[in-house]
Write a structure and sequence with these properties.
Strand order of the largest sheet: 5-6-7-3-8-9
Shape: globular
Distance between the termini: 46 Å
Number of strands: 18
CATH class of the domain at 322-522: Alpha Beta
Largest sheet: 6 strands, mixed
CATH superfamily of the domain at 322-522: P-loop containing nucleotide triphosphate hydrolases
Radius of gyration: 31 Å
Strand content: 15-25%
Oligomer: single chain
């Protein structure tokens, strides 16, 4: 069933054409990846799909009654003040009914009048009919999956959140919403590796149709089954996932190039004939050919990656063999220890990936390494002869009060205007754009300026802190190629799995305040830590099941006023309590296994990998035991409810 249809859509702003003649249809349950260079109109397309904007030409058709929800890059939570309430979003009315039911159930112990019982029955029936038992566990599960503590979120003000946390909260609100179509604009920007994997699994199991703008190639490969590629001044739909799209795009460009070359040869031959014969005996034929040539529809050359930034890093000197040294280094912020007793070394030529959850202290560790943050104890330093080029995640290295021309000219004062403009041209800034002030740039444009500055550093150690955050896919691929060709040393902090897989020779894992030095690339780390992901998935499913149990228990009313049923009631209550004790015991063992599996130290040797496999198998058994116990609890609770209910 078609839910969205775009037909020959074009958008113009005054005399500026953003895109033209876009046509595609979206069926129920499909997952579309929207890709292309920054500024080509991807976010504008989303506004067309929601009805916020109308196309200059063409039509946008939506299935009647369809609920389309847009997650924007800038989040607005309205008047709510608490994190949990913001995540619950459109379910505020149903959650208010839940609170009323809890209050009514408490009052029924003292007031069991017909009117009170009737009101409770009506409200409870509505709560069940509208899926009330599912809402709070659903909100809790999504918040937990995106790195929040669901219980703490009920008392945490939105005002205390960082920018990245607000981004994750906006995503949580979107995923919880009862939408038929989710429009997600760069949803992985504020996610770490674990939460990105969780989002992939969540979207895979969601019945909603998904359209996602993303530059994360691994995420796209895992999620989408269709691709809409913005290129030139239009967009082309492709059936299949991201990897088939890359192949199809290359073949399409090759075919277009051959057709274009063939036509150009034909035009050249015709023009040569016309030139030679226009004034001779064959003048009539030459004039006829000229008329036909004038009417010939011209094919356009296929779009290429020529407009992609051209970046190359060249180390100025070789430097020493020991590039970065940490010896029992401890890094703290106020009284909070971020990294404790870290001992590791980066050697010349290494490309080391530094990974860990958001907020673990990766950026602070880097600042400590560069002397911008004092270390609590130990040694943390760069080696002799090492020149550092630092790409900051917040792009603070770009001076906002200067023009782009002045930014580069200050780094190369001996260059003439032509060389400065040529360098900026390599990063997509041409003509009058070089006179723009940096504070007028978008995030992607500032990122390209930062890379243009880094390219001039001549550093033999590049420290890159989330360098792909604001770049489009084509620019990320250009950066990846540049790092791969670079002959210096690289410390790469990133959540971009494709980049980490392609480049790293070693991995530093920041876990539980310690740095684990894994002697293998990121792809190998993913393979040996598969049990960690398995444990996290089981724990998430277990917690969601337990939340459902707790939610039903919260609104259920117990009434043992019938004396004849009290004996049976007490027996059932004991049975329920015994099952609950069993559930707690199984849950405790699951938590214990999960903590062991999540510790990266477990995977450092062959015995650890074998032990992880054994623990993973036990985790599966415990999960099955928990499911059986929860089923038994549900059956016993229903019998208890039935026996407790007043006779009608």
């Amino acid at each position: 069933m078609t839910q969205l249809a775009v037909s020959s859509a074009s958008v113009e702003f005054g005399a500026t054409l953003l895109f033209r003649d876009i046509t595609f249809t979206v069926g129920a349950g499909e997952r579309w990846g929207i890709v292309g260079r920054n500024g080509t109109g991807k976010t504008t397309l989303f506004r067309l799909l929601t009805g916020e904007m109308a196309p200059t030409e063409g039509q946008i058709a939506r299935q009647p009654g369809i609920r389309v929800s847009l997650l924007e890059q800038h989040r607005d939570f309205g008047d709510v003040t608490m994190v949990w309430e913001a995540a619950a979003g459109q379910f505020a009315e149903l959650l208010a009914l839940e609170r009323s039911l809890v209050d009514q159930a408490a009052r029924l112990e003292h007031d069991s009048s017909e009117s009170a019982l009737a009101r409770y029955g009506r409200d409870l029936e509505r709560f069940e009919r509208e899926g009330g038992y599912e809402i709070a566990p659903r909100v809790d599960a999504v918040l937990h999956g995106l790195g929040f503590d669901p219980q703490a979120a009920r008392k945490s003000p939105i005002a205390h959140l960082s920018g990245g946390e607000r981004g994750r909260l906006g995503l949580a609100r979107q995923l919880v919403s009862p939408a038929d179509v989710l429009l997600l604009d760069e949803p992985t920007n504020h996610l770490d590796l674990e939460t990105t994997r969780w989002l992939e699994e969540y979207l895979a199991s969601s019945p909603a149709t998904v359209l996602v703008i993303s530059h994360d190639r691994a995420f796209l490969a895992a999620v989408v089954d269709h691709v809409l590629h913005f290129e030139g001044d239009t967009a082309m739909p492709y059936a299949g996932g991201y990897e088939p799209f890359v192949e199809q795009r290359a073949l399409r460009r090759l075919t277009q190039q051959r057709q274009f070359d063939q036509q150009q040869r034909k035009i050249a031959n015709e023009q040569d004939y016309i030139t030679r014969n226009i004034a001779g005996q064959n003048s009539k034929q030459a004039k006829g050919r000229r008329k036909r040539l004038d009417r010939l529809p011209r094919l356009s050359a296929p779009a290429t990656d020529d407009a992609t930034m051209s970046v190359r890093f060249e180390p100025g000197e070789r430097g020493g063999d020991r590039v970065l040294i940490a010896e029992h280094a401890t890094v703290a912020v106020e009284n909070r220890v971020l990294v404790q007793d870290a001992t590791a070394t980066i050697m010349r030529g290494d490309t080391v990936g530094l990974i860990g959850p958001n907020g673990a202290g990766k950026s602070t560790f880097i600042r400590a390494l560069l002397g911008e943050h004092a270390i609590a104890s130990g040694t943390l330093r760069v080696g002799g002869g090492i020149t550092v080029g630092y790409y900051r995640q917040d792009l603070a290295q770009v001076p906002l009060d200067q023009t782009l021309f002045d930014v580069i000219n200050d780094l190369r004062p001996t260059w003439d205007r032509r060389l400065v403009q040529g360098h900026l041209g390599r990063f997509g800034f041409s003509g009058d754009e070089v006179q723009r002030r940096a504070d007028t740039l978008s995030g992607g444009e500032r990122a390209r300026v930062a890379l243009a500055m880094l390219m001039l550093s001549g550093a033999n150690l590049l420290i890159l802190d989330e360098p792909t955050n604001h770049l489009d896919v084509e620019s990320i691929e250009a950066l990846e190629d540049a790092i791969e060709r670079y002959e210096g040393t690289v410390l790469l902090v990133s959540h971009d799995r494709e980049l980490l897989r392609a480049l790293t020779s070693r991995v530093w894992v920041l876990h539980d305040h310690h740095i684990i030095d894994f002697d293998g690339n990121f792809a190998e780390w993913e393979a040996v830590s598969a049990e960690r992901e398995h444990a996290a998935a089981i724990r998430s499913a277990e917690e969601e099941s337990l939340r459902r149990v707790a939610e039903k228990r919260k609104t259920a009313r117990r009434d043992d006023s019938n004396r004849e049923a009290r004996t049976a009631l007490r027996a059932l209550q004991r049975n329920v309590e015994e099952i609950e004790a069993t559930i707690q015991s199984i849950e405790a063992r699951i938590d214990e296994i999960t903590r062991v599996l999540e510790d990266p130290h477990l995977y450092m040797d062959a015995d650890g990998v074998t032990r992880a496999s054994d623990l993973g198998a036990e985790l599966e058994r415990r999960k099955s035991e928990l499911e059986r116990a929860l089923d038994a609890w549900g059956t016993a609770s229903e019998r208890l409810d039935a026996l407790s209910a007043p006779a009608s």
